[in-house]
Structure formats: C-alpha cells, structure tokens
C-alpha cells in the first residue's frame, strides 16, 4: 500500500496524483485513486501553499532489490521550471537507502531528460516500446 507525504488524507491525495499523472504524463495506462492506492509505489507529493493545499507535483519511489526506481515524476504545468522537479528528485533520493537510483524517461521528453542530467543522472540504456515510443534509462550512483 503506498504511503504519502500527505495533507488531507490518502484518498484525496491518490485522486490528486491520478489526475496529475493522467493530465500530464502521456501514460499508456489511465490511473485512478484505487490503482494508485493499490500499487507498490510510495509517492512523495508537493503541495501549493495553504489554504488550498493542492498537489502540484509528485514522484513515485519503488525499491526493487538494490535499486530504487523513480516513477511518474510530474509537476503541474503552471509550476514547471521553478525548481519543483529537482525538489521532488532530491526528496526521492533522500528517502531511500539504495546506492543506485534509476528512472525511465520518454525519449521525446527533453525537459525531463535535462532535469535528470542536472540532478547527476546519466543515460545507461533505452527500450523501444513502439516504433515511435522509446524510453531512456537514466541512473545515478549514490
């Protein structure tokens, strides 16, 4: 069951994460609050200022053996290019004890690729999903 850095309850947060991911990440899977709550991914959430406390960004953290995989990094469009993506990556790295952190980024998502590079990640491989859809594996050794 996922854990949230939470304000306002797990279901509210899971709903907010699913809406953020579905609207911004061009995923092939449509997420719901239930799919978020029933996954093995722990989400770190970033909220705007009170009184709204809206989720403006998130990143999923999933430990797989000796590697931590970051998933679903997303920042709402109006909050991009203000350092929030880097805050989420840093919080995710600080939340784990593994020595290797990995993420998979769409090859056409240059903003995310540049962000991970700025955070010290290096491209270590790629996976062709469809003829037009490729994922780049990026990794950081701690």
Overall description:
By secondary structure, this protein is of the alpha+beta class. The protein has one domain (10-141): Gcn5-related N-acetyltransferase (GNAT) (Aminopeptidase). Helix content is 28%, strand content 35%. The protein contains four helices and six strands. The protein has helices spanning 10-24, 33-37, 84-94, 110-118; strands spanning 42-47, 55-64, 67-75, 100-106, 122-130, 133-141. It has a six-stranded mixed beta sheet. Helix 3 (84-94) links the parallel strand 3 (67-75) and strand 4 (100-106).
Structural topology:
Layout: H1 10-24, H2 33-37, E1 42-47, E2 55-64, E3 67-75, H3 84-94, E4 100-106, H4 110-118, E5 122-130, E6 133-141
Parallel strand pairs: 3-4
Antiparallel strand pairs: 1-2, 2-3, 4-6, 5-6
Numbering strands along the chain, what is their spatial order in the largest sheet? 1-2-3-4-6-5
So what's the oligomer here?
single chain
| CATH architecture title | 3-Layer(aba) Sandwich
| SSE succession | HHEEEHEHEE
N-C termini distance:
26 Å
Q: Portion of residues in helices? A: 25-40%
The overall pLDDT average reads: 87
Strand proportion: 35-45%
């Amino acid at each position: 069951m996922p854990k949230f850095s939470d304000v306002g309850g797990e279901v509210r947060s899971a709903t907010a994460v699913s809406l953020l991911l579905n609207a911004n990440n061009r995923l092939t899977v449509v997420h719901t609050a239930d799919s978020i709550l029933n996954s093995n991914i722990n989400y770190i959430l970033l909220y705007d200022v009170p009184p709204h406390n809206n989720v403006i960004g998130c990143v999923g953290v999933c430990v797989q053996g000796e590697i931590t995989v970051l998933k679903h990094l997303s920042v709402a469009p109006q909050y991009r290019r203000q350092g929030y993506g880097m805050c989420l990556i840093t919080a995710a790295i600080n939340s784990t004890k593994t020595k290797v952190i990995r993420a998979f980024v769409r090859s056409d998502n240059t903003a995310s690729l540049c962000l991970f590079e700025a955070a010290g990640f290096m491209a270590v491989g790629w996976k062709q999903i469809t003829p037009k859809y490729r994922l780049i594996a990026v990794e950081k050794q701690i």
